[in-house]
Amino acid sequence: MLGLDISSSSVKLVELSRDKGGNLVLERCAMEPLERGWITDGNIEKFDEVAEAVRRLVKKSGTKTKNVAMALPPSAVITKKIILPGGLSDIELELQVQAEANQYIPFPLEEVSLDFCVVGASNASIGDLDVLIAASRREKVQDIQGLAEAAGLKPVVVDVESYASRLATARLIESLPNKGAGTIVALFEVGALTTSMQVIRDDEVLYDRDQAFGGAQLTQLIVRQYGFSVEEAEVKKRSGELPDDYESAVLRPFVESMVQEIGRALQFFFTSTPHNKVDYILLAGGSSALPGLTAAVTQHTTFPCNLVNPFDGMEMGSGVKLKRMTREAPSYLTSCGLALRRFLQ
Q1: 179 exposure class (CB count in 10 Å sphere: 0-12, 13-18, 19+)
Q2: By C-alpha distance, which of 32, 33, 29, 36 is closest to 15?
Q3: Burial class, 292, CB count within 10 angstroms (exposed 0-12 / middle 13-18 / buried 19+)
Q4: Model pTM?
Q5: Spatial contact of 233 and 224, defined as CB atoms under 8 Å apart
């Protein structure tokens, strides 16, 4: 199964397998940029153009796999953890979930795609179960299913972006001392328009927050400083072909702004929870690999900050261009998490 992540700035694809020893293998990863405005706030504004970009991406990757896992942004999904009696049959559980869902979902159930999973025995109520329900407007689910189908793919899983990125991050946290048990990790995903933060401990989200700050602001600064068009600025930002004063006049002030945003988000976490520190800060997303960013975050916050490589510890398939993959790795966190769903079915 492929992991296909559709964001406001690009479409990303990851395919994983396992070797005979059970080790994960990165078979292929590929990325295709999207033009600004094709996807806005998680809504597909230009369906045909995005579908064509997905087709190009699949062709470029060389994959023959058709099954695909995709995700919706958290803003398009309502999730709620509920407690249900233990010992129910599957059918009884489903009926109970539908009855409970009515309380939490502000739309008629016939307009909604609804799913649930049993998380496990409830700590709060002996003998009962914690059940996670997730619901989204049916049209949102059909939109992204339609994109996959237009590219000749078969949508098998529709996940939530933040859940997918957590799944990929959990694998990395396991490689920390003591398998990461009890470790508090602040994950920042820096997208084009939004930076999302999730604070995680032992697979539990302690806090999450989105900020309207991202790589598109750097593009705008380049446009203002040098008079390029937005398209030119984006291309030059990716290739690094910028004037000599770019680093001092544009990049450094932007990195400082981003560090301030990250520091502010952490302060919100500290003031609204009993916690006053994190053990690690992880940075992911297309704009996280800026020169000097991780060091500046460590210096400003005093917490160790690392760039995420979701493929750490994996074997590399013959189709992977190592240099490019290493450069782009932080962008693939969500698509890697979606590809990992193949092993959780």
Answers
A1: exposed
A2: 29
A3: middle
A4: 0.93
A5: no
